[in-house]
Design goal:
The complex is a heterodimer. Chain A is mainly alpha-helical. Chain A has helices at 18-35, 41-59, 66-76, 79-83, 88-96, 113-121, 125-134, 140-151, 158-164, 171-190, 208-226, 230-287, 310-336, 345-369, and strands at 4-9, 12-17. In chain A, a hairpin with a 2-residue loop joins β1 (4-9) and β2 (12-17). The longest helix of chain A has 58 residues, at 230-287. Chain B is an alpha+beta fold. Chain B contains 5 helices and 3 strands. A 3-stranded antiparallel β-sheet of chain B has the order 1-3-2. The chains are: A mainly alpha, B alpha+beta. At the A-B interface, α2, α3 and α4 of A face α4 of B.
Chain lengths: 370, 108
């Protein structure tokens, strides 16, 4: 037994199975997506619907089932077949178009500038945001951000979003993209409790310079058009784009170098921490009886390691410095090796919580110690 | 390079010419045009026709009128316009030249 739906195709009423309806709906939507902004799109769709209605009525069935729908789709052809005759040169330029700089409306903090730049440079948006944040003190980056917000267009259509990520806007890509979006939403619902503050240590530092190069070449080509020096501008912008490729290569190496530096620093830091912890323990074993005992808390003796025992001081100290050192180490490794494993969100949140607790205890215990 | 693709390209190039040709003598609606083209194996799937018809119509080479149908939805009957007839004539002479040229090249 199946549920049927009433549909109106070109003014005719059909009874259609629910699954068949979904298949037909998907098919028509695909065609619609595929036709994009083709002139007379609505008319084409009307013609197609009317032809489908005709095919259905020829079948003279009480209920349209999935079999009929599939037969009709076979006769009508896949969405790609509809376009193949449409302005081939336009389609070609679509496929050739590589990446474009857009703002990403799907993952924004403010205007989606950073994530758009991230897509363009093929690195995680977190990096771009960090760079912007790091430059806030100079005051330039805020102004810079708003300028970028104003001049970079937002990726609104699916085709633009694909262009933003550097994929050709072919039909199967669009379908892929839409399906991925759907799955992301599903995953979001599943992971809703895990999604949190500690979620964002990712890898891939490269190409800020490439972005600068692109920006300069964009500015330059705009300027040159304004001055009717299009030819000159073309050459210079070509030059800049070559330069930006070189810079992106250099930036890639710089990213690795940064990783090595952070790695060395972190290892040194960890060694220093360990050494100071060991030495500190020795000192404290010697002065261990010299504890500060708060009035009213005299029963907390040093013998059983109460809350003010030096061991807690040390543990909180080691955690306060150790956790950032550990994260830094992980970060450096991720910079160096793209496929490094990552901590899950819950572990990150746990670490963050532990770190905050130890930071507070460390501060309090430091104050009570001295 | 696949032979199927090339075949398809060849077919598509002359599709407009064929549509105009089948409409030369009498007015037809989409399904009849389809039938004629499918008979001649010029079309593999029907979907290709609709964007083409709309484009030819927007280029003022075709126009259509609605006619009621006893068995299905109302039908769009397509007619060649004045311009369409001229266009067809030009395509036809080009086609004949091409045919001649191809015969000459392939047979020598």
């Amino acid at each position: 037994m199946k549920k049927t739906i009433n549909i109106n195709l070109a003014g005719f009423v059909f009874y259609i199975d629910e699954d068949a309806y979904e298949a037909l709906q998907k098919y028509l939507n695909n065609i619609r997506t595929y036709l994009g902004n083709t002139e007379g799109k609505d008319e084409i769709i009307d013609d197609i619907e009317s032809r489908i209605a005709e095919l259905f009525s020829e079948k003279q069935k009480q209920v349209i089932t999935l079999t009929e729908v599939n037969e009709v789709i076979e006769v009508m052809g896949q969405p790609e077949d509809y376009m193949s005759e449409e302005e081939p040169e336009e389609k070609k330029s679509y496929q050739q178009s590589s990446k474009r700089l857009y703002r990403d409306p799907d993952s924004t903090v403010l205007g989606g500038v950073c994530s758009g730049v991230g897509h363009y440079l093929n690195i995680d948006a977190v990096w771009i945001r960090l760079i912007f944040l790091a430059m806030v003190w100079s005051g330039v980056s805020i102004l810079f951000y708003f300028i970028l917000w104003a001049i970079i267009p937002k990726a609104e259509t699916t085709a633009q979003k694909l262009e933003m990520k550097g994929k050709a806007a072919t039909f199967s890509n669009i379908e892929d993209y839409v399906r991925k979006g759907y799955e992301n939403v599903k995953d979001d619902f599943k992971n809703v409790d895990l999604k949190g503050a500690g979620e964002k240590a990712k890898q891939g530092a490269s190409g800020f310079f490439a972005f600068l190069g692109e920006l300069i070449s964009k500015l330059f080509s705009a300027l040159s058009k304004l001055l009717f020096f299009a030819f000159l501008g073309e050459i210079i912008s070509k030059l800049f784009s070559a330069l930006s490729k070189l810079l992106s290569f250099i930036a890639n190496i710089l990213g690795k170098l940064l990783g090595v530096i952070i790695l060395i620093t972190t290892v040194a830091l960890i060694i220093a921490l360990t050494v100071s912890f060991i030495i500190g323990s020795f000192i404290d074993i010697n002065i261990g009886n010299d504890l500060l005992v708060l009035p009213g808390f005299e029963f907390i003796g040093p013998d059983w390691g109460g809350p003010f025992h030096p061991i807690w001081y040390h543990i909180s100290m080691i955690l306060t410095f150790g956790i950032p050192a550990f994260s830094l180490l992980l970060f450096a490794l991720q910079l160096l090796f793209k496929n490094m494993g990552r901590l899950s969100g819950s572990i990150k949140i746990g670490l963050l919580a532990v770190w905050m607790i130890s930071l507070v205890s460390f501060i309090i215990l430091s104050l009570t110690q001295f | 390079m696949k032979v199927e693709n090339t075949k398809q390209q060849m077919r598509k190039g002359i599709l407009e010419f064929c549509i105009l040709s089948v409409l030369k003598d009498r007015d037809l609606y989409a399904s009849e045009i389809l039938e004629r083209l499918k008979e001649a194996r010029l079309l593999v799937v029907e979907g290709t026709l609709y964007p083409l018809l709309t484009r030819l119509k927007n280029a003022d080479l075709l126009q259509y009128r609605w006619e009621e149908s006893s068995s299905g939805p109302p039908r769009k009957y397509y007619t060649l316009t004045e311009e369409g007839t001229q266009f067809l004539e030009e395509l036809k002479s080009t086609w004949e030249e091409l045919q001649h040229a191809i015969n000459k090249v392939t047979q020598s």
